[in-house]
Amino acid sequence: MKVAFFRTHILCLGFVLFSALISATTTAAPAFVKKPVEVSDSSVVQSLIDAAEAAKLSETRTWRKLMHFELNAFGMLRSQVKAPAFFFSENGDHKLDQEMQATLWSFFGPIEVKDEHAICKFPARLSWLQSKLKGHPAWASLPKPTCYYFDVFLRNLNAESISFVFSSYYANNPGSAFGHTFFRVNKKIKEGRSKQELLDYGISYAANVTTSNPLIYFINGLMGGFTGTYASVPYYYKVREYNDYESRDLWSYELNLNDAELQQLLYHIWEVGPHYFDYYFFTQNCSYHMLTLMEAVSDRIELTNKVPLYVIPSDSVKALFEVPGFVRKVEFRPSLRRHFEDKWNRFTDQEKKDFLFVVTGYTDAALTGIKFDNIQRKALFLDGLIDYVDMKDPDGVAKHEGSWYHMKEKVLISRAEVAVISEPVAILVPEDERPDISHPSSRVSLGFGERNVTGASKQSLGFLNFRFAFHELLDDSHGLPARSQLEFGNFKFQYFENDLNLESFSFFNIMQLNPLRTLDPKPSWGIDVGVKNMPLCDGGKSCLGSGLQVYGGYAADWGRHMVWLLPFIHYRYGNSFAITRNYAAVGYQVGYLFEASQTYKLLAKYSKEVPDRYPTVDTASVTARYNFKSNQAAEFEWSNPNLNSPVESQTTKFLFHYFF
Amino acid sequence: MKLLLFLLTAVSVSFAQAKKPMKPSPKAAAPAVAPAPRAAPMGHAAHKSGAYSRPYGMAGCGLGTLIMDKRSSQVLVATTNGTGVQTIGITLGTSNCVDEATSQVADKMDKYIHINKVQLAGDIAKGNGETIVALSEVIGCQSSQNLGSALKASYRDVFANDFTTNEVTDSIITVIQQDSQLSQECSLAQI
Q1: What is the interface pTM, i.e. ipTM, of the complex?
Q2: Which domains does chain A show, CATH number per domain?
């Protein structure tokens, strides 16, 4: 640096002499510091760096967490932050010690532009280093830059505490089918005022999606092709988006942080906030990088090692409970759907009839023609109607268009004219839907069974299954959507005559059963993508075919019983298939699920499948499951893979499931 | 800087995905300084956007500049995909994107009302509800009860046909100023 300076000014001797004089009192930081920092007394900074090195601070867990260093896929310790601006050192993303030195140099650098000083940008690093090197004389000469935006940030948040918020499952969008997590920064409550969640702030971590092509989206999401950044928005955004627009419940877990930890968390949010990571949908996702923020705050907070490699939002909620005393309070904020259902349940039978009449064929006369017992009943009826429209057509209502919106305009005017003030209603907290009580998402299963084939001796079988995630119809539905299934990476092996064979591998398997409701007639659907052993090879032997099966139909329920009829199409490609390598079939599945409780369930399935070039296959199975602990279950199954076959074959098996 | 550029690209991409053509900005008509409150009685014809002071055009990239301008009424639709995937947001940090603490009440109300409009309309028709309580907090009212009743009585004026956010804000401010009790109860600082 100085050499270059000298060269350019070689003809200007006077200036060179002058600058040489200055150099005698100022020293630049080492070469790896990106932006040259000149401090008036380098020995002060050097002594601080020496103290930090003597204490081996750069090797501590907290420094590693503040820098977001983790082992990468190749086993190397690297920062997960990809933005170069996060590092003061050229080698900051892989050298913790250099970055600490460079950071300390930068803290003592001159104040050039307000808000741009290292102290304004990295307050969490500063406060941690100050606490670790307490009493060091160098701190006395630390610059005091004005950090206007940082102050505004803290003042706006006005934080009393922080809650970890879980937005419940939303099956209509594959990306949010597992739920979503973010922070709510709870504002201090002014004296004599009540808490207003809407005015809090939400802080979330999300991918910056730059494509609308689902395939590119999927590949990028898997491979880290999108960047991920944090965002801070008023909490009312989150409420409107999740609670209303998508009708999802919000569960908040208030964190038990002391004042210093709370401050450090806010500081750290500020310092990583503007920088980007690579976003991986399954591993380093919205939940993972919420956990890493908390981990950077204190050594007592260990979370990422409490969740599997692939981080499912409900698992991240459970991880909070692994830190003793970390959750102070659990709160529930009901979705719009629950608000509507609460009103609906308070309707009389006649009001329900009137309601259906209005929503199935609205005319102004239909609404004005209804006779109400009193204005309170009328107010309740209209309130229910308002909720219903918001739920039915959230897009139209937000955009001011469509018939539902125009109907709502009139309903609102009628409601405003009814001289009744609606009182707030407390909706019962559905304790058994708390996401923290859900079963762990990975599962391994072991079992044995036998196959009875007509005219042959009994065959003993062994079973070994492994599922990465997440939930199936028969699993314990505490804290999970009972009537849906979402499985990723499900392997099933069968052991027979000293051979372990892959029976099936489901890359993903989704089943969304929506029992028909008069007010909300939604179809049911399912999709299963993967590899499956099929008896289509020479001599009726089984061999693997890859492809998918797509279901679409309807379900109905009464009490604990549910039935469904799902027509499907089925396609598999198999290299060794006997007649043709492309197997294509249509068929239907009839199902019955009895849920005696959230833990004891019975599932019966029958399906008929008519392939293009192969014989028709009818299969049937009955499965009973008892989930006796949140992480253990026993299952008994009888199945017949082909009712049409001249050779009768029936399999009975017993499985033990362990969730972890 | 690179990050800022990146964000701008990300935001503009999401803009490009908006289905409807963008409405002209309501702020364009907003005067830079606060004019005297309207004395005229309220009615549909009297609605003009931006009658009260808003610190638009200032540095920063809060909701006011980012969303009010460009997203029109599509905010909810556009921000919503629930995947933990953001199409819009206020980023943190030194990219200058924090909500200014000094932003004036009308501006704060615009942001609040813009996002809460659907729920607020319902609550005002009912005369009570969370969005009214929080609104009374935003504009510094002592209690939300009187505000709720007054707004309920003026429902037709506040939520006129195809209202814009600024119009709703201005109508609410006018309701408060014309109500002898509310004008005492609500500080409406800086208006």
Answers
A1: 0.84
A2: 27-144 (no CATH), 153-333 (no CATH), 339-417 (no CATH), 438-659 (2.40.160.40)
